[in-house]
Write a structure and sequence with these properties.
This protein is mainly beta. The chain has a single domain, classed as Immunoglobulin-like. Helices cover 0% and strands 55% of the residues. It is built from no helices and nine strands. The chain has strands at residues 3-5, 9-11, 15-16, 20-27, 35-39, 50-57, 65-74, 77-84, 90-98. The strands form three sheets. Strands 1-2-3 form a three-stranded antiparallel beta sheet, with no helix packed on it. Strands 4-9-6 form a three-stranded antiparallel beta sheet, with no helix packed on it. The radius of gyration is 16 Å and the shape is elongated.
Length: 101
């Protein structure tokens, strides 16, 4: 059973928060061209700014995978980009959160 604390903090063995989301997308890139995937279906709680981060899951950073980035941030999702010099599927980890105020 979860303990409920001030500010809607619920503790039940791991941290859960309505204003945080994370996951992975797999992008099949076009070589030497920025290629994107959409993260959607989220509903981040809060009314403040939305922040998003991403990182390519690769053993060859700055060689085959040259860049990963995000754009189009909103409380419901964002676009994740990768740029690499070949067409190998690229797994990208992403994290989003929204300020509560």
């Amino acid at each position: 059973m979860a303990q409920v604390r001030n500010g809607d903090l619920r503790i039940s063995g791991r941290l859960k928060a309505g204003n945080i989301a994370q996951g992975y997308v797999t992008i099949t890139p076009v070589a030497n061209t920025p290629t994107s995937a959409t993260v959607s279906g989220l509903s981040l709680a809060g009314t403040g700014a939305v922040i998003g981060l991403c990182a390519s899951v690769t053993s060859l950073p700055n060689t085959d995978v040259l860049e990963s980035s995000v754009s189009g941030l909103s409380s419901t999702g964002m676009t994740v980009w990768t740029y690499r010099d070949n067409t190998t599927d690229t797994k990208v980890a992403w994290l989003m959160w929204r300020k509560r105020t």
